[in-house]
Automatic annotation (TrEMBL):
The enzyme's E.C. designation: 6.3.2.13
Similarity annotation: Belongs to the MurCDEF family. MurE subfamily.
A Gene Ontology term for the protein's cellular component: cytoplasm
Protein name from the UniProt record: UDP-N-acetylmuramoyl-L-alanyl-D-glutamate--2, 6-diaminopimelate ligase
NCBIfam families: murE (TIGR01085), PRK00139.1-4 (NF001126)
GO biological processes: cell division; cell wall organization; peptidoglycan biosynthetic process; regulation of cell shape
Biological source species: Anthropogastromicrobium aceti
Ranges of residues in domain Mur ligase central: 116-319
Mur ligase C-terminal domain location: 343-467
Location relative to the cell: Cytoplasm
Source organism, top-level taxon: Bacteria
Pathways involved: Cell wall biogenesis; peptidoglycan biosynthesis
Length: 500
């Protein structure tokens, strides 16, 4: 696309180059990811100015640069390359959204756009809702913590909610593939930073809210966190709220009460009743009756433990029913008996008569839900291994230590993604809340080996915090790290020794 066409509807000042002769092959705001012919959207980030990365963008083949001010520093870098187009304009999220709309030129009316927000449950609700659409022959794509899912392809994304150009690109791919629905996890930071600018969601789903994501790189306070959660729903035509979370009523008030409700415990537009637990060799199950408005009740089997996952299922089922036909309700497949989501209550092995599970819980509320859900199945013991991320909220650390001490029989503390923060500081924060039996093993791989060596028949070992992730970041260095592979390797080693 020619740059002059891309800039349609945007007020700007041309500082150098010829837009009508400049061919743009893509849009990018990360200088490390620039490809030949891309436009580099040079904006100031949380910690740095985009001007610091101009040279890198140019060296990788950027054909044009959009910047807020063509000042002396920018001129010194750019004026030596006369073939580069330089556009001076407002580098707001609205400008970025207009560029993305012009470049991808897709009609959002061709598919229903669904957003899911909340402290917990976003990934699971998205995966459940996608499964319902696919099981009923409706092509659906999703994007979130686990990546971008379209048909049989999975693509990693930059964040839970991708950067704006990336998000628009994924939606364009979904439209091109013939999708009827697109589901996105929407984080509060994404709303705050304008990553969903220019998008109107046909349905917004709220799961729950707990104090989290509060710190230097996230939100200044819980009030600010809650504000941006609520702000998302101004972008939604319809709203589906969790009747079991009090914050839902604040959202409903902003929408003048025009919304739909779901629940895992009380009557609502969609709700679950008569919940029963069941232990089977391949997993922990729940069975319940599903009620949707005046329709006949349906029996649902769910291959996930915990009331939180009944709530997630109720959210997905309610959203599906809201967006489909009541006349075909009886013929729809509404079943989660084979459902699983990577890194969420995920069973990854059996060892010495016990069961090993991986979960992404990385705050107090998620860990409490996880351990309470597992405790309800009466295991012999629960062994909980976790760490906390560096450069993230310090508040959650002692709280996670306290919860593990209260609900697990043995707590094993190890590294998560320490990033640029010393493990010793993270550990000290965790230990403020720890009581009872605990062990500290800094190396996460060694910690997994220790945990498995301690297992007895009937035990449940939960490896907490990394979930779907296959890397670990320590001291700014990212290396491959798969808990599944480590568990499998230890299992194979054990079997080899036994066979000998």
């Amino acid at each position: 696309m020619k740059l002059d066409i891309l800039l349609k509807g945007i007020e700007y000042h041309l500082q150098q180059g010829s837009p009508e002769n400049c061919e743009i092959t893509g849009l990018c705001e990360d200088s490390r990811k620039i490809k030949c012919g891309n436009l580099f959207f040079c904006r100031t980030g949380t910690h740095t100015s985009g001007k610091q990365y101009l040279r890198q963008a140019l060296s990788l083949g950027a054909a044009a640069v959009i910047c807020e001010k063509y000042d002396e520093d920018s001129r010194r870098i750019l004026s030596s390359q006369k073939d580069i187009c330089v556009i001076e304009t407002d580098v707001s999220a609205q400008t970025q959204a207009r560029l993305a709309s012009n470049f991808y030129d897709f009609s959002k009316e061709k598919l229903l756009l669904i957003g899911v927000t909340g402290t917990k449950g976003k990934t699971t609700v998205c995966a459940m809702l996608q499964k319902l659409f696919l099981n009923n022959h409706m092509l659906c794509a999703t994007v979130g913590t686990n990546g971008f899912f379209l048909k049989d392809r999975v693509t990693k994304s930059s964040h839970t909610t991708p950067e704006l150009f990336e998000l628009y690109g994924f939606i364009a791919e979904a439209v091109k593939a013939g999708c009827t629905h697109f589901i996105a996890e929407v984080s509060s930071l994404a709303v705050k930073q304008g990553r969903i600018a220019g998008l109107t969601f046909d349905l917004g789903i709220f799961t729950n809210i707990y104090p989290d994501h509060i710190g230097g790189n996230e939100h200044a306070s819980f009030l600010e966190y809650a504000y941006w959660k609520k702000r998302f729903f101004k972008n939604c035509k319809k709203v589906l709220l969790n009747r079991d979370d009090p914050f839902s009523f604040e959202i409903a008030a902003d929408k003048n009460g025009i919304c739909s409700w779901y629940s895992a415990s009380v009557c609502a537009d969609g709700y679950a009743s008569e919940i029963e637990k069941d232990v089977e060799i391949d997993g922990l199950y729940q069975h319940f009756l599903w009620h949707w408005q005046k329709m006949p009740a349906r029996s649902i089997s769910l291959k996930l433990p915990g009331l939180c996952n009944v709530s997630n299922a109720a959210a997905a089922l309610s959203a599906f029913c809201l967006l489909t036909s009541d006349e075909q309700y009886d013929s729809y497949q509404l079943d989660f008996s084979t459902f699983s989501v990577r890194g969420r209550f995920e069973m990854v092995g059996h060892f010495q008569g016990g069961t090993i599970m991986i979960d992404y819980a990385h705050n107090e509320a998620s860990l409490k839900n996880l351990l309470e859900s597992l405790r309800a199945y009466h295991p012999n013991r629960i062994l909980c291994m976790f760490g906390c991320g560096g450069n993230r909220s310090a508040v959650r650390r002692s709280a996670m230590g306290r919860v593990s001490s209260e609900l697990a029989d043995l707590t094993i503390i190890t590294q998560d993604n320490s990033r640029d923060e010393p493990f010793e500081q993270i550990l000290a924060d965790i230990l403020l809340g720890v009581t009872g039996d605990y062990v500290v093993i800094r190396d996460r791989k060694e910690a997994i080996g220790y945990c498995m060596s301690q297992m007895r028949p009937g035990d449940l070992l939960v490896l907490v915090g990394k979930g779907h992730e296959d890397t670990q970041e320590i001291a700014g260095k990212v290396e491959a790290f798969s808990e599944r592979d480590i568990v499998e390797s230890i299992e194979k080693t054990k079997k080899g020794k036994v066979s000998k």
